[in-house]
Amino acid sequence: MSYLASLLSGGNREVVAAVLAKLIALRAFMRARNLNQPVDDGVLEKAGLDEAAAVRLYRLVTIGGTTSGTSSRPSRERSRIHMPARGRADSGF
Asked: Looking at the domain assignment, is residue 34 inside a domain?
C-alpha cells in the first residue's frame, strides 16, 4: 500500500485505501448484479457510493472517456508522414 501511495498520491495512504475500498465494493456490486443475486447496499455505503454512482464509476473504469465505446487507429497515410528516418534516406543523407 505504501508503494501505491508514494507512486499515486504523494504518500497519502488514506487516499489509496479509500480508492481501493471503492474498487472492491464496485466489484462486489457488479458481480452480484451480473449474476442476478441480491445486492448488499451496505458494501456500497461503507465505500461512500450509492447504486447510481457505482454504475457511473463502472462505466468510467471499463469504457473510459470515449463516447462511442470504440477506438480507431490512424490511417496508413498518416503514419507515413511522421517517419523522418525514411525522408533522410530518400534525400541522400
From this structure: yes
Show Cβ contacts of residue 40 under 8 Å, excluding neighbours closer than 6 positions.
28, 32
Find the domain containing 53 and state its range. Answer: 20-66
Contact 69, 41 (CB under 8 A): no
pTM of the model: 0.61
Taking the C-alpha atoms of residue 84 and residue 93, their distance in angstroms, rounded to an integer, is: 12
Domain count, the chain: 1
User: Using CA atoms, how far apart are residues 86 and 72, in angstroms rounded to an integer?
Assistant: 25
Q: How many CB atoms lie within 10 A of CB 18?
A: 14
Which grid cell is 79? 503514419
Q: 15 near 9, Cβ under 8 Å?
A: yes
Residue type, 82: H
Does a structural domain hold residue 91?
Answer: no
* 50 belongs to a structural domain: yes
pLDDT digits (tens, 9 = 90+) for 62-80: 876 555 556 666 666 655 5
